[in-house]
Amino acid sequence: MSDCIFCKIVAGEIPSTKVAENEHAIAFHDINPEQPVHILAVPKQHFSNVSDLALNDSGITAEFMRFVAEVAAEQTNGHYRLQFNTGAAAGQTVFHVHGHILSQSSKGSIA
Ligand code: 5GP
Ligand code: ZN
Description:
Layout: H1 5-10, E1 18-21, E2 25-29, E3 37-43, H2 50-56, H3 58-75, E4 81-83, E5 99-103
Antiparallel strand pairs: 1-2, 2-3, 3-5, 4-5
Bound molecules: guanosine-5'-monophosphate and zinc ion (ZN).
Zinc ion binds next to helix 1.
């Protein structure tokens, strides 16, 4: 979608501090971190939220969850929250599905 900020990050039109990328997804640091580790995992294809993704493409959903697990294993100490805000009233502000990977500790730290 041409007016979507995360589509622009996926396309490299807006810079981001990328931590991982594969064929279907990217992960980058949140611009306004709420915890010591705050990474956004984003499928490259545009879906408006996690329900839109899960209900329409089980293949990308499964691939995406594997990607999240790999990023969390690499970037956290294994203790993390995965959060999908879904709908404006639930706090969603960017309407391109993204999982917040939130952790108090990066890899190697004590939980
Ligand atoms: P939501 O509230 O939609 O679940 O989360 C959107 C998240 O995207 C917020 O945590 C916000 O800080 C982050 N964000 C918004 N714009 C940008 C941006 O241009 N770059 C990065 N890295 N993060 C962004
Ligand atoms: Zn998008």
